[in-house]
Amino acid sequence: MRPVASGGIGAPVARVEDRRLVTGAGRFVADAALPGMLHAAFVRSPHAHARIIAVDTAAARAMPGVHAVLTGADLLDAGVRPLPHAAVLRRADGTPMRAPPRHALAAGWVRHAGEAVAIVVAASAQTAADAAEAVAVEWEPHDAVVEARAALADGAPRVNREAPDNLLGVFAHGDPGAVDAAFAAAAHVARVEVVNNRLVANALEPRAALADWQDGRLTLRVGCQMPHLARAQLADAVFGIAPERVRVLVEDIGGGFGAKSFLYPEYVAVAQAARHTGRPVRWVATRSESFLADSHGRDSVSEAALALDADGTFLAMRVATVANVGAYVSHLGAVIPTLAGTKPLAGPYRTPLIDLDVRVVQTHTAPVDAYRGAGRPEAAYLVERLVEAAALATGIPALDLRRRNFVPRAAMPFTSAMGEVYDSGDFARVTALALAAADWDGHAGRRAAARARGRLGGRGLAYFIESTGAANPVESVRLELGAETVTVYSGTQNMGQGLETAYAQLVVEALGVDLARVRIVQGDTDRVARGGGSGGSRSLFIGGAAIGDACARLVALARARGAAPAADAWFAFARAQGGTLSVEGKVKVDAFSWPNGCHVCEVEIDRDTGAVAVTRFTAVDDVGRVINPLIVHGQVAGAVAQGLGQALLEEAVYDRRSGQLLTGSFADYAMPRAGIVRALGVFLDESAPCTTNPLGAKGAGEGGSIGAPPAVAAAVLDALAECGVTHLDMPFTAPKVWRALQRART
Amino acid sequence: MTKISFTINGKQVSTDVEGRTLLVDLIRDELRLTGTHVGCDTSQCGCCTIELNGDMVKSCAMLAAQADGATITTIEGLAKGDVLHPVQQAFTECHGLQCGFCTPGMIMASVGILKANPNPSDDDIVKGLEGNLCRCTGYVNIIKSVKRAAELMKA
Q: 20 to 30 A from B144, CA-CA: which of A52, A68, A354, B55?
C-alpha cells in the first residue's frame, strides 16, 4: 500500500466542517436574519386540478402586520417569466415537447395539490400564515389523474393543453428489428413488470429562501446545490436581468440529494416579494409544504424482457417504460427517465442488443426531478429484477447468469448496448469480494436458524453500474496562495457530503501544506466566478481534478520564479513574492465515470406480520480512487439506507380520485429510522481506478441508493419463494408482504 | 402576552411571549440560538431536541409559556469553551454527521441516552433515537458515535 501523506489522498481525516455543525454554529438559510426582514407564507391549492376563477386578497391585505399579497396575475404584470426546464424530448409525431408554463404563482390553472397560488408577506411568520388563510380563492375544480398509465388512457383528465394525450415526449434507443430476431431465436425469455415507487427526498432541512433586492440587485440566500445555475435561471430566464444583478449565496445545506439542485417557484416569488416591498423577505417551508411542493423522485413502471440462449448468455433486452414527470417539467424532469437514467441500462453485462421505449407522461402530481441516483436506480432495479426472473426461467442460478454475462475486465474499455463506454471495472472480482465479505455460503445456516424461530430467511445479490458526471464536464477553480493560507474558490457545492475536507486533502497532497491552512470557498456567486454545482456525483472527480490542475499551475509558477517550495515554505514563498499569488485551474472531463458495486442483502420475514428485517447488508463498491475512506464509507452507508428506505418503507401516494397527497407528513411517509440496518459491511475496492479523469475517482454519493433496492428485492423474493410468491413491487411493507403471504396460502 | 423567566445555557432570561408561541421559535427567533433546528411540523424529526429540567424534550412540541421557571440547555450550551462535550467529540471522530442538520437534536438525544444509561447496547441506542430522523448517515455511524461517547465519558 502507498504511504498516505498526512491528511492527503487516502487519509481518513475527520471532517473540517464538523466543528461548527456539532456546536450549533452551522448557518442554514432559516438561521439567517436581516434587519427589517419580513416573513412569507404561501397560499396553496387544495385541489389537484382546478381553474382559478378569482383570488380575493383584500381581507388578508387589511390585516395588521401584512405588507403585501402577490398573486400569479401580479407576477405576470411585473413581467416575471415562468421557470425554465430542459426541453430535450420530442413527441411521437416528431414535434418538440411542450410543457405548460410553470409560473412561480399559478396563473389561471392549478395542476397539482399544493401548487402555490399567492404569497403573503408580513411582519412575522405567524402573521403571514394567518393572513394566508384569509386569502379567498374561488375555484372551479376538475377531475385529476395521478398515475402515468391512467393518464395515457382515452378520456383521461388533461394536464397539458399542448399535449392533450398527456404524453410529453418519447425516447427510443436500439434496433427493434434486430431485437425481435434475437427474441425469436432465444432458448429462454424472461419477463418482468416492475414499478419504481415515487419517493420524496426529504432532506432534513426544509427548503428556505431569503431574498433582498436593493438598488436593483437581488441577493438570494438559498440552500442550492448549483448556485450558478440558480443565478442563471433567475437572471436570464425569470427576471430578464443581467447575471451581475443577481447574487446567490449558499451557506450550509441540510442535505440536498438532488432535490435542491435547481430553482423552485417559491424562490422566485420570495425574490419578487422582496423587490415589491423593498425589504428582505424570508420563507421557510414547513415539512408539510416540502411534501407537497418539493420535486419528487422516481415514479415509473417498466415492462421488460430478456432473451437468453440455452447456456444463459444474454442475447437481447427489450424495455418499455412509462415515466411520470408530474404536472410541470422541473429542471431535469424530462432528462432523468430518458437521456440520463438510461445510460447504464445495459448494466454490467455484455447484452449486445437493447430496444428501449420510454414514454414521459404528465399527471396532476408534484413535478418529478433528481433524487439520489436520478434514473440510474430505476435502470439497475429493472435489469437486476430481470436477471432474477431469468434465473427462474432458465433454472440457472442468478449468480451464475451474472458471472456468465459480466463484461470482463480485459474487455475494458467496453461499449455497451446503450452505446456508452465503460472505461474500467472488474465486476467478477468485486462480486467475489462481496460473496466473501457477506459470508454468502454461510447463509444456509442463518436461514435454518431463522426457520427455527418461525421466520423466513432470504438472501439476495445485485450488481449495479451507474454513470456519473459528464453532463456538465467543465469545472474551474481559483487558487490563492496567501501569507498564511491556501484558499480554493470552487463553484461546486458542499451539502453535507464532505467536499470541504476532501478538497482540502487534494491541496495537502499536491502542496504538502497542513490541512488546517486550507480554506475552501463555495456558495457565493460574487466570490466564485463560475461552476457547475454539485450533482450526479460530479464534484470530486471534476471539481477535484480542477484543484489538481490549479496546484500544478502554482508549482509551475514557483518553478518559473526559481523556487520549489513545499509544506510551510509555500507561505514564505508567497510573502517573498509580495503577498498573494493566484492561479486558475480548469479541467474538462468529458467522459462519464462508471462507479459500480455488488450488494448482498439478507432478510428475515415474520410470517405472522409480514414485517421484513434486514439482518445483514454488505456493499462492496468500486468508486475508483478514494480520497477520504471515512467520508466514502459514510456516503455508501447513507445511500444504502436511502435504498433500504425505497425498498422497505417509502412511497409517495396520491389518492387516485381526488389527487390529494396521502403521505404528506413524517407520520404518513415512512422514513428509515435508527436500526434500519444493523449489520452493515461497507468495503471499497480500488483496483480498477477510473481512466478518464486525472484523479481516478468515479463518484461515490449515489451507489448505495442504486444497489440496495434490487438486492433487497432479491432477498425478499428469495424468502417468499417457498410460499409461492414470485412477484412484489416495492416498498416491501409489512401489510404488503402479509397480503402476499395470505394470497399465496389460498 | 405572558411574562416568563427561565435559565438557558446558564443565562437568566425574562421575556413576554404570545400564548401560541412554540418554545423552539422563542429559542431560535428571539434568543437567536439557531443551533436548535426545525425539520418537521408533526414532532417526528427530533431536530429541535433540547434538555429541559434534566429531560430531553422536543421544543416544537411545547409552548414557550410552559418553559416558565425551567432550566434549559441547547446544543450551544454543551461545549465548555473550546472543549467539546464527549458526545460532540464522538460524533466528529466517528463521522456521525454529514449535512449536520439533524445533528444538534441527535447529540442532545444521545446525551439523554447516556445520562440514563452510561453503557447502552446497540438496542438501547436504537430505541433511544427512535424520535430522531437522519437522512444522511443511515444511522450506523451515529450508533457508533454514542458508543464512543460512552467510552470517552468513562475515561
A: B55
